[in-house]
């Protein structure tokens, strides 16, 4: 009964303000401003931003932090990749700025000698979180990165890991963090991140010593490239039957094959095929959109702090293949942890299920900005969608006539399933009032979605919800909008040529409610139009005429007044 009540509460919708603005670091903001200026081919603006970046680095009295150096390296890679777009429009000083920044990065690497280990109390003090926030960091953690910096420094690192180990948690901190993870019931996370897990050590203690001393049966996963000299540690972990796999690159493949021959055993591998490689890290081209390279929603723990991870498509906007939202005292909620197949089944274009201060799950009322960015970058290409993940284009197909008829045929099986889930052996009459209400609501939700009129209504509501999110995003994030406009340039031009005719609110309502029309391209036309400032009035009028919201119980978009 307790679990059932939790499911009922999970249908609640958060209607308060969602504000993660201001969480971007200085260098992340400047990276985006730099890209926007380059894409606009604005030479003077590009040079001005680049000079500000150099000035900021020179002002730093100590070494750059891990996150700051990652964004600075992205800016430098973008400079090299996109030089033809802007160098002819800038002064001769641009190459000089590039070289000075490169020199400062190299200096930062040299000065980043491994300091004293980060102890737990200092790390906790630095986070400065409320107790409920700290609890949720551990409950929803998907990654525990024990060191910063990496001994491998691979070209295709989606985490843009820094060369050379910079810092690490102390052995007592690692033990305490793992204990808190296990006490929170979180035993299925990755001991990985922007550092190889086998790199971690503190004095004479290594990862094998930590894991062999654990009580219980954690299902921690380890992805390693097996740093040189760490082969004995790997063999010890294999003997412990730890959930471990090796990430293959052209640099370590021969060494791994030699090790396998020596131990006469095949080591589990990932990224063993070129088909699985997504250009990332130093191979990012900053001019296209590629699939996501992150498969989890949750939190990340590193020596530098904690953040929320939201998967994204991989592009110059999000070269990590995910968005890192720094966690502060103002963080109002945390996404419910989803990894692997669970994460692939999340429809990124729907409001997220999150957990708040009372530790109960609920749904947001709107999309996070990062979700809107993904919604815009999702052009419907199969190449962007990994197996198991539903694209927005595929979602639109549920409004077509064939799926509606199929849902009607499924009514008896849906009723049977709901009875099995809700009705006790003593019969429906013995069901508690709140359970009866939930049973009827779920049944009604399915029956409603078999009705032609309701399906058409839900289609309009979904599109209105998405367009409203786009309109709000464009108003609030002009820099990121300009980046997306560039990345979608060819698609936008094609759609404008195909559909650019005067429209009205009635035009949009007719297009999106007509059962014989497939609305995907028309939706993309209006979404990209809003990005570039076209058809603003008919889009706004359509949104006003069809206000909508997400109903998590029915799992669809409905008129905004119906849930009230």
Please compute the radius of gyration using only Cα atoms.
26 Å
Strands, total number: 18
State the distance separating the first and last CA atoms: 26 Å
Shape: globular
Helix content: 40-55%
List the total number of helices: 23
Instruction: Outline the low-pLDDT stretches.
Output: 1-11
> Structural class given helices, strands, pairing?
alpha/beta
Q: Please summarize the sheet with the most strands.
A: 5 strands, mixed
pLDDT averaged residue by residue:
89
Residue fraction in strands: 5-15%
What does this 3D model show about the protein?
This protein is α/β, with parallel strands linked by helices. Among the domains are: 26-114 and 291-333, no CATH class; 398-559, no CATH class. It is 47% helix and 11% strand. It contains 23 helices and 18 strands. Strands 2, 10, 11, 12 and 14 form a five-stranded mixed beta sheet that branches. Helix 2 runs antiparallel to helix 3, helix 4 (66-86) packs antiparallel against helix 5 and helix 18 (452-476) packs parallel to helix 22. The longest helix is centred in the C-terminal third of the chain and has 25 residues, at 452-476. The protein is globular and about 65 Å long.
Salient structural properties:
18 strands; four-stranded mixed beta sheet; disordered N terminus; single chain; alpha/beta; 564 residues; 47% helix; globular; five-stranded mixed beta sheet
Sequence-ordered SSE layout with sheet pairings:
Layout: H1 2-9, E1 13-14, H2 26-39, H3 43-59, H4 66-86, H5 93-111, H6 120-127, H7 131-139, E2 141-144, E3 147-148, E4 167-168, H8 171-183, E5 201-202, E6 205-206, H9 207-212, E7 221-224, H10 231-239, E8 243-247, H11 253-263, E9 269-270, E10 296-302, E11 305-311, E12 322-326, E13 334-335, E14 338-339, H12 341-344, E15 353-355, E16 361-364, H13 369-377, H14 392-396, H15 401-409, H16 411-422, H17 433-448, H18 452-476, H19 478-487, H20 489-499, H21 505-513, H22 520-531, H23 536-545, E17 548-551, E18 556-559
Parallel strand pairs: 1-16, 2-10, 7-8, 8-9
Antiparallel strand pairs: 3-4, 5-6, 10-11, 10-14, 11-12, 13-15, 15-16, 17-18
Helix pairs in contact: 2-3, 2-4, 2-19, 3-5, 4-5, 13-18, 16-17, 18-22, 18-23, 20-22, 21-23
């Amino acid at each position: 009964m307790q679990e059932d009540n939790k499911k009922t509460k999970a249908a609640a919708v958060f209607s308060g303000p969602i504000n993660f603005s201001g969480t971007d670091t200085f260098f992340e903001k400047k990276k985006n401003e730099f890209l926007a200026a380059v894409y606009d081919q604005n030479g003077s603006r590009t040079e001005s931003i680049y000079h500000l970046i150099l000035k900021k680095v020179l002002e730093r009295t100590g070494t750059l932090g891990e996150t700051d150096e990652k964004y600075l390296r992205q800016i430098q890679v973008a400079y090299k990749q996109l030089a033809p777009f802007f160098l002819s429009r800038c002064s001769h000083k641009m190459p000089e700025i590039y070289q000075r920044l490169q020199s400062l990065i190299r200096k930062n690497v040299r000065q980043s000698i491994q300091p004293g280990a980060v102890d737990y109390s200092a790390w906790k003090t630095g986070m400065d979180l409320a107790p409920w926030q700290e609890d949720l960091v551990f409950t929803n953690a998907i990654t525990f990165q024990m060191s910063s910096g990496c001994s491998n420094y691979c070209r295709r690192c989606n985490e843009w890991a820094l060369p050379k180990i910079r810092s690490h948690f102390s052995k007592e901190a690692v033990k305490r963090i793992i204990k808190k993870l296990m006490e929170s019931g979180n035993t299925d996370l990755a001991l990985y991140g922007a550092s190889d897990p086998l790199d971690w050590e503190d004095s004479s203690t290594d990862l094998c010593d930590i894991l062999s001393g654990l009580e219980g049966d954690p299902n921690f996963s380890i992805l390693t490239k097996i740093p040189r000299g760490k082969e004995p540690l790997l063999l010890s972990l294999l003997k412990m039957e730890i959930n471990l796999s090796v990430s293959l690159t052209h640099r370590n493949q021969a060494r791994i094959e030699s090790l396998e021959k020596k131990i006469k055993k095949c080591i589990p591998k990932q990224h063993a095929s070129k088909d699985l490689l997504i250009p990332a890290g130093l191979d990012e081209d900053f001019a296209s959109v590629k699939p996501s390279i992150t498969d989890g929603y949750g939190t990340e723990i590193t020596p530098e702090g904690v953040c929320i991870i939201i998967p994204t498509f991989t592009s110059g906007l999000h070269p990590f293949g995910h968005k890192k939202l720094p966690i502060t005292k103002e963080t109002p909620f945390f996404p419910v942890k989803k990894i692997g197949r669970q994460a692939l089944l999340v429809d990124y274009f729907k409001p997220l299920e999150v957990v708040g201060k009372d530790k109960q799950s609920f749904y947001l009322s709107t999309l996070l900005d990062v979700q809107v960015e993904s919604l815009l970058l999702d052009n419907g290409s199969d190449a962007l969608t990994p197996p198991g993940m539903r694209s927005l284009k595929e979602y639109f197909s549920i409004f077509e006539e064939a799926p509606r008829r199929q849902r009607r045929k499924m009514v008896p099986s849906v009723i049977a399933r709901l009875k099995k889930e809700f009705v006790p052996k003593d019969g429906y009459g013995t069901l508690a009032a709140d359970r009866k209400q939930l049973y009827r609501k779920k049944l009604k939700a399915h029956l409603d979605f078999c009705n032609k009129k309701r399906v058409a209504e839900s289609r309009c509501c979904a599109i209105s919800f998405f367009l409203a999110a786009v309109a709000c995003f464009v108003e609030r994030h002009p820099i990121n909008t300009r980046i997306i406009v560039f990345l979608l340039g060819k698609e936008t031009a094609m759609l404008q040529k195909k559909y650019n005719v005067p429209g009205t609110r009635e035009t949009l309502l007719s297009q999106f409610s007509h059962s014989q029309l497939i609305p995907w391209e028309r939706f993309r036309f209006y979404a990209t139009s809003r990005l570039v400032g076209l058809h603003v009035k008919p889009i706004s009028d359509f949104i006003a005429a069809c206000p909508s919201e997400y109903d998590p119980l029915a799992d669809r978009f409905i008129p905004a007044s119906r849930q009230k």
